[in-house]
Amino acid sequence: MAKLHERLLSKFLFYAKWHKNPLHAPFHFGVFFGLSLVLTATLIYAVTNWPNVYASAAAVAAFDKSAVKNEQASQKMESLKIADNYIVVLNRGERGAEVQKSFGLKAKQEYRHAINGFSAYIPKGRLEALKKDKRVSYVEEDVTVYALAQAVPSGVRRIKANQSNVALIDGVDNRVNADVAIIDTGVDFTHPDLNVYQHVSFAVDSTDGMDGHGHGTHVAGTVAALDNNIGVVGVAPGARIWAVKALDNSGAGALSIIIKAVDYVTEHADEIEVANMSLGGQGSSGSLRQAIATSVGKGVVYVVAAGNSFFEVYGGDSQLGTSDDFFPAAYPEVMTVSAIVDTDGQSGGAGVSTSYGEDDTLAKYSNWSNVVDVSNPVVSPGASIDIAAPGTIIYSTYKNGAYATMSGTSMASPHVAGAVALYISENGRASDATGVYRIRQSIIDLAEPQSAWGVNKTTPLSNDQKPEGLIDAGNLTTGGSNLRPTISISRPVSQAVFNEGQMIAFLGNAADAEDGDLTAKIEWTSSIDGVLGKGGSFSRNLSSGDHVISAKVSDSLGYSAIATVRISVVSSINSVPSVSILSPLNGAVLTTGTLVGFTGSAIDQEDGDISSRISWTFNGSVLGTGSDVNVTFGKGVFRILASVTDSGLKTATTSVEISVVDNPENTAPSVSIITPAETSSVIKGTEVRFSASASDNEEGNITNRIKWASSIDGNFGTGGDLLYSLFSSGVHTIYANITDSNGLTSSDAVSLTVEEKQADTVPPLVSVTYPSANSVVSGVVTMSASASDNDGIDRVQFMVDGADIGVSDSVAPYTIAWNTDDYTSGSHVISAVAYDTTGNKTISSLVSVVVDRVPTVTITSPTENTFLPGQAVTFRASAMDKEDGDLSIKIKWSSNLDGILGLGSSLSKSLSVGTHIITAEVFDSRGQTASASLIVTVANKLGLSASTDKSIYNNKDTVKITALVSSNSVPVSGAFVSATVVSPTGRQTAYLSGTSDSFGKVVLTYQINTKSGGAGSYGVNLTASKTGFANGTLSITFKGNK
């Protein structure tokens, strides 16, 4: 079974790998599923063949340590573009129906609430025209997205939800008054432990929102499982769940459908307060961000998983809005959640360690953040990550009424979504984006800082230098009439900049409705320098760097309020910036009337890239400001200055000299085709890369002006590098044409043959490789097959007795788990069916196998394990087989020391001295074997005699006990002799021990205390022991007088 796990896991990781190289594809969508799963019901089979049950991705998997490492290093599932499918975002007020009619399109999804637009299949011939339509804001490619994977669960206890006066976790089914949308694989709305209020599906394989995968149901249970004395309890027990199914039962879904789910939440924003998204990808999607931003503007708090790729959420370039962002986690509009390891439900770091990290540390798979974009509306010590929550080994509800354990940031996010629901149920919902950001900031401010997590290292991930806090659900709500205190920071102001060594004034105010003025109790901390001071006013200097200053106060009942500001302390040493002119080159000769483009770059050690501050001048006159300016000159020689000034008023200057002359005699440009090669041939519909270079003596590189044309199809593109596939059949002459500014032209040409694709009639080849013909199988068997085809294999289906067993494999080597226990004993026929990519199929040769259950053996005697030499040992056992019945008489007994002992269900035998491993083994009629074993020790018993030097002792007398150890009347040296002395009252008053000498003698002494032990008969219980011998025991007595 372990090998089966490894095979299926390796296949899943082939699919689920999130590439860190952003050049691999414009979109990289990944699974934020859990990293591990232990099901309480039957195993499932979901995303990409093996998501959840054994590996990482959405909700359901069991990882071994090496698999976790692989998962952490590269858990990036690249989502594939959906060919010719696009998301069209329209300008405000435009009607989608009219645009669709204009271009002959049929919408798959209509968006009216979060964004204005639609998704549709759009042929290439109409795409460019659609993009240029004035009614269209922008167009994005549609892609496939994957879901990222009564006890009080440890995560609920760790964030103190069980201490919340609003959650009221006490086994009584009181329900939190909040509505939470779960955008996921759906939710099992028949689960007895969930309060599913609404369920809807936009996935292609469902109409009602039922979860056929398990991930969404697990997330929903962590948010709001009922407090009803069964199963588990959620963070916000009984909150109303809106099951919004956007991912199908394999855990996949189109980006356009995710946007439709957000559109639905926005439509119901007057009811839904919180939305959880334990899914995401790597890339850049303006339409999804726009949709979420609109929904946030309606007052919905979006809580999202940070991702399981052990990477910066802004990607390798640490910049928001680029193709390597993890989204929606990187969006400033959402509440992003990382995952910690928690194994005991409490702080302190005392819980057991896991392969994901030590107890009370950030999980090794979790994404992190060191940078935050200025557009982020909240301030968090975790940069662009708001908060952390337990995400490892989380127990929650699962599909089909079951329960399961999973790990991943998918499991952390719903802890926070539930906590937000608790906060809103007491403090009220947001009505706009400002309200949403106020809720996020409050929860960040009330978090448990990493310094309070426990004794373990607070940041085990060396790349993560910004320690976000842990969600503290117990501190979010006060319950009853007590009001939370208020606090504000007057100085320093947020975003202030100070010089290193400068004294900084700290001024704050705090008050509480019940306790009055709490200003004197304000505690000030810095994210860099730690504890700064206490009280409402003081001054001190800080270390250089970007500080998050926190002021915290607690009332007499322990409820807290926190205010934060972000300031910077810079080095007082200001370096001179550097500036360089990239173009034109010094000494360039240009013609009159030419628009001259000046491009520059400026860098400052303190301020970074300050190219936007470059000032371009000629003879004191400003020509423009920025990294790029364009100027037209008359005839003459011009020296152009580029200067830049940093924030410390240090200036750098450089210059370039150009000559502008009357237009000389013009020469024709030149052009050369690089690809495709001459006389190339392709199949019709194949995408062909066209590349060329063009230059002109007067104008330089003019490659971008190249125009491409076909002798059959006419013009088809411009530029030095493009892809095109819509050629007609035939032999094309491909022209690359170039024209300079004075109208002179040149061209280059190659021949390209476009052939019709021939229908594929060649069937694939397939054969069963395991199990082999006539083999005997039992339990779970890994069936495997080999397959090949000239056009590629689409999938391989496995059959037993001519019936499809329900699962196919699309990645070589092709395997599947076959549970033979579901089939009758005897002969069965297995086969494999291979399908190629054009629909041809082949059925393999039939392979006959025999299903035979493994027999069982149970040893019932002996029940003791130590015997004397020569003593007969009675062995008894029974053996049963489903097919052959009672096999007890066939049991073969053996010893690792004495060899074969005999046959049968009962056997008496004396054994040689030593420790024996006794094995009872049986074979059934088809050669299936089973065995059981036990350990028996045969050794001489030690003889023990003992006496006291007197029979009666007075108080404080010394009792001398002499013991002799022997075996077969021969003294035994080196034996350990222990003795316990028991008073007349039955209390043990002494423990004595010693080792026998060469005469087998050991003397033990003891001072009697009859005042405490009493007068009467004292007992001495002696035991002698030595390796290779059975223990000897003896009891003697003596009397004590007061």
Q: Would you give an account of this structure?
A:
This protein is mainly beta and 1042 residues long. The protein has seven domains: 81-143, Alpha-Beta Plaits (2-Layer Sandwich); 154-462, Peptidase S8/S53 domain (Rossmann fold, 3-Layer(aba) Sandwich); 486-570, Immunoglobulin-like (Sandwich), CATH 2.60.40.10; 596-632 and 642-755, Sandwich (Immunoglobulin-like); 765-851, Immunoglobulin-like (Sandwich); 856-938, Immunoglobulin-like; 943-1040, Macroglobulin (MG2) domain (Immunoglobulin-like). The chain is 11% helix and 42% strand. The chain contains eleven helices and 75 strands. A hairpin with a 5-residue loop joins strand 63 (914-923) and strand 64 (929-938). 43% of the residues are buried. InterPro entries: Ig-like_fold, Peptidase_S8/S53_dom, Peptidase_S8/S53_dom_sf, Peptidase_S8_Asp-AS, Peptidase_S8_His-AS, Peptidase_S8_Ser-AS, Peptidase_S8_subtilisin-like, Peptidase_S8_subtilisin-rel.
Short description:
The chain contains 11 helices and 75 strands.
Which helices and strands occur, and which strands form pairs?
Blueprint: H1 2-16, E1 28-30, E2 37-39, H2 65-74, E3 81-90, H3 96-103, E4 107-111, E5 117-121, H4 124-132, E6 136-146, H5 154-158, E7 179-184, E8 196-201, H6 215-224, E9 240-245, E10 252-254, H7 255-267, E11 274-277, E12 280-282, H8 286-297, E13 301-305, E14 326-327, E15 335-341, E16 361-362, E17 387-390, E18 394-398, E19 402-406, H9 409-427, H10 433-445, E20 486-491, E21 497-499, E22 504-512, E23 516-517, E24 523-526, E25 530-534, E26 537-540, E27 545-554, E28 560-570, E29 578-583, E30 589-591, E31 595-604, E32 608-609, E33 615-618, E34 621-625, E35 628-632, E36 636-645, E37 651-661, E38 670-675, E39 680-683, E40 688-696, E41 700-701, E42 707-710, E43 714-718, E44 721-724, E45 730-739, E46 745-755, E47 765-770, E48 776-777, E49 780-788, E50 793-800, E51 803-809, E52 814-819, E53 826-836, E54 841-843, E55 847-851, E56 856-861, E57 866-867, E58 872-881, E59 885-886, E60 892-895, E61 899-903, E62 906-910, E63 914-923, E64 929-938, E65 940-941, E66 943-948, E67 952-954, E68 958-967, E69 970-971, E70 976-982, ...
Parallel strand pairs: 7-9, 7-11, 8-9, 11-13, 13-15, 15-17, 21-28, 30-37, 39-46, 48-55, 57-64, 65-74, 67-75
Antiparallel strand pairs: 1-12, 2-19, 3-5, 3-6, 4-5, 6-10, 12-14, 15-16, 18-19, 20-22, 22-23, 22-26, 24-25, 24-27, 27-28, 29-31, 31-32, 31-35, 33-34, 33-36, 36-37, 38-40, 40-41, 40-44, 42-43, 42-45, 45-46, 47-49, 49-52, 50-51, 50-53, 53-54, 53-55, 56-58, 58-59, 58-62, 60-61, 60-63, 63-64, 66-68, ...
